[in-house]
Write a structure and sequence with these properties.
Pfam families: YmaF. The protein is an all-beta fold and about 130 residues long. It contains no helices and 13 strands.
Length: about 130
């Protein structure tokens, strides 16, 4: 049995020997698949005498199925520099009254006059 699907293909950030793509399905068997995004924001760890704030929006992911989201943003400029924040959220955590959120965590890029990085973690918006 064949089920027609359609969607968008994204280039993977994998830098290994295997080249890959990620598919965001927008239609399954003639029915639209709803996509959604989440906001993320927070404050990095305090390192080398300062911290940074960050805010961003995840990439779209399909609704109604287990999924994760990729994210990418920059921190605020503090102490004359900024850092990149990039990663993939954890799986969806369902709420009893509907909706869900994702947890995320990681480390920023190494930047600054005194090279350093910050840790960050949080939960996305619903």
């Amino acid at each position: 049995m064949e089920i027609p699907i359609s969607g968008f293909m994204f280039h993977s950030d994998n830098s290994g020997q295997m080249h890959s793509h990620e598919l965001l399905i927008t239609q399954w068997d003639g029915m639209p698949v709803q996509g959604h995004v989440h906001e993320l924001r927070g404050v990095t760890s305090y390192d080398v005498g300062h911290n940074h704030r960050y805010a961003g929006t995840t990439e779209p992911a399909p609704s109604g199925v287990q999924h994760t989201h990729r994210y990418f943003t920059f921190t605020t400029v503090d102490d004359r520099h900024r850092h990149q924040i990039r990663g993939v959220t954890g799986p969806a955590i369902q709420l009893p009254n509907g909706g869900h959120y994702h947890e995320f965590s990681g480390f920023t890029t190494v930047d600054g006059v005194t090279p350093h990085r910050h840790s960050y973690s949080g939960r996305t918006s619903l």
